[in-house]
Design brief:
This protein has five helices and four strands; from the N terminus they run βαααβαβαβ. It is mainly α. The radius of gyration is 15 Å and the shape is globular.
Length: 149
């Protein structure tokens, strides 16, 4: 179930399953480099959280999404972020750039997993790598997944 700020929408599980069965990533308004990466990762159809969140986030809207572990929440927020950065031309310039996206996680392992997901989904965008998650400081990266400690 996903809740959008100011526009609260609730979709029943049977509706979410129906969305998942008929929706492909091609239907979500994603750019070709991301679609190519998703295909290489073996993704064919979005999960309910992805099918509901990605179109909403691609439009630049806020979203609060809730889903169980293993349902694809990372892809649901990472893919629209990568598309936004690519469309704005962020990540393709050389030289030092400020971090544009900061993702905070409760554990180092999750931060690494999210960083790896960003690298996988963005492999055809020409974006810089997510950087070394064990360091902090002026990096030449556009996004960073981090944790305390």
């Amino acid at each position: 179930m996903a809740c959008a700020c100011r526009t609260y929408t609730r979709i029943a599980r049977d509706q979410a399953t129906h969305i998942m069965e008929r929706t492909t990533f091609n239907d979500l308004g994603l750019i070709e480099p991301i679609l190519k990466s998703l295909q290489e990762e073996g993704y064919t159809h979005p999960t309910p959280i992805q099918a509901q969140a990605i179109p909403h986030l691609v439009k630049g809207r806020d979203l609060l999404g809730c889903a169980q572990t293993g349902t694809g929440k990372t892809a649901a927020f990472a893919i629209p972020i990568l598309q936004e950065l690519h469309e704005r031309g962020i990540g393709t310039q050389s030289g030092k750039r400020p971090i544009k996206v900061l993702i905070l996680t409760p554990t180092r392992e999750l931060a690494i997993q999210i960083g790896e997901s960003f690298a996988a989904y963005g492999r055809h965008l020409g974006a810089t790598p997510h950087g070394d998650l064990r360091r902090c400081g002026p990096e030449t990266t556009d996004r960073r997944a981090a944790t305390r400690g």
